[in-house]
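Q: Protein A?
A:
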Amino acid sequence: MSGRLLYSTDGGSSKKPEKKKKSYEKSDGPTKMRLETKGRGGKSVTVLFNLPFDSGEAKKLMKEMQTLLGCGATFKEGRIEMRGDLRDKVEAHFQSKGLKIVRAGG
């Protein structure tokens, strides 16, 4: 037999360290909206950020817009991302609720 080590349990854990979640903080400015396509395979995504709501209210708003607009959406890192170019419809929805929204970029 060779003196070569085949298996050892004292090497520590092979688990990857967990990423810390960024805590979401509501903003005091108006909600901003932009259209993103970069890094998404050419697909367009309407992104709402700088939200003046707490996490629960933002998710409730996202669900409401998903139902109204018939689109997929997700809440990531304090932003609402909706599939497709929905800027005009989102702006109209915010105005009907009396909320301020600003278009950011182009």
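Q: Protein B?
A:
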Amino acid sequence: MSERQPLVAVIGATATGKTALAISLAQQFGGEIINADSRQVYSGMDIGTAKPTAGERAAAVHHLIDIRRPDLPLSLGEWLPMAREAIAEISSRGRLPILCGGTGQYVWALLEGWRVPAVPPDMELRANLEKRAEASGASALWQELAAADPERAAQINPRNVRRVIRALELQRNARSARAETPPYRALTIGLASERAMLYEKIDARVDRMMADGLLDEARYLARCGFVLGQGPLSGVGYSQLGQFLDGELTLPEAVARIKTRTHALVRRQNTWFKSGDVRITWLDATGRLPTAEARARVHRFLGSTTPCGTIGPDLQDGIPAG
């Protein structure tokens, strides 16, 4: 156990303060952050994915952000070797790798040692699924996907049979992925928040995103030829603003939907990060970010003889507390 690479993971639902806490830990313990948010890997999708700002990236080194165009989906099988390579490279320099993100499948695939090969098309499976869709309706296939991978299902229109079938194809491969003992000794810190207060925080963050230019960002992506509502841009925020730009929703309706869909995202994330999961060290982030407690946990995890990096300021929502 002691020979395995130490790895700290900061996980939890959206808007719980993961980025701010990961940066604080990176400053305290000489760490670097590996992104485990499936949408922050795409360039140009900055405001809508709550991507770390330029100031936050200056405060700590981040990996696996802005590595793919918004029209080229990145699969779990592609992300995993990138994350493992980043962790090995960070560790080789005597730094502490800190995984940070809310995409549950990414987090557990890495921590549990999944081996997910590239998935070639399975024509027989596709034909069988197409027959099922014709017999039972497309929604039946989508419901199967939602039960297996609710986060992925939320990104796909239930009527898009082709994409639902491909997602089921990938999901079945992921379920059968060979798990190996990972080369990490991991401390997984989960940030929990009282649900009603978290929803209020999400709503305020959406308003902030709009004030910061989320609509302009969506317009820019559309002008670049990317289709809002498809592929990586089918997620919360861009899809609803695409409906506004197409005249299907008013702007207040689109903003209201972004808020309610983000609330739903929290519930889906909680299917991956359960309160009773003994693998997770849960800390209460309902009020102030639990920076001191997290630092103490990491210090005990690494051992009192482990040298620390520069001690930075406590961060609350990415802003030095004072």
